[in-house]
Amino acid sequence: MAYSRVQALGLFRRLLRAREATFRGDVEALSASRTKIYEEFRKNSDESDPTALSSLYETGEGVIDVLHDNVLQAKLNESTGRYQLKMTKSFQTEEMPKTCGSS
Is the pTM of this model over 0.85? Predict the structure, then answer.
């Protein structure tokens, strides 16, 4: 499938939204992920090979899936010495505790 500029911009926006949802409240992660997304799109902005574009598009879709389904953030609670997990719905199961002890 040939990907258009409109589809690439849509992927770009979805990547930015996925990073915002995943890293909400984490200024450093938000900044680093935004920089990486911008860098990758700029680096590949002149790509015209349909096979390469298809691969890049699939990679971007894969990154969105990983951000939504495979990234957890934990913040150390100084008073308890435990980490508080920020979990999305895809992670919230009965088997996974809400906090983990620090090592």
Answer: no
Question: 80 with 98: CB under 8 angstroms?
Answer: no
Question: What would the pLDDT profile of 48-75 be if each residue is shown by its tens digit?
Answer: 899 999 999 999 999 999 998 888 888 8
How far apart CA 67 and CA 53 sit, in angstroms, is 21
Task: Output the DSSP codes for 39-90.
Answer: HHHHHTTT---HHHHHHHHHHHHHHHHHHHHT--EEEEETTTTEEEEE--TT
Alpha-carbon distance of 33 to 23, in angstroms, equals 9
d(CA 16, CA 41): 12
Cα separation, 49 vs 34, in Å, equals 25
Q: How many CA atoms lie within 13 A of 95 on its CB side?
A: 2
Q: Scan for tokens 């900044």, then name that residue.
A: 31
CA distances in angstroms from 88 to 56, 70, 72, listed in the order given: 26, 10, 8
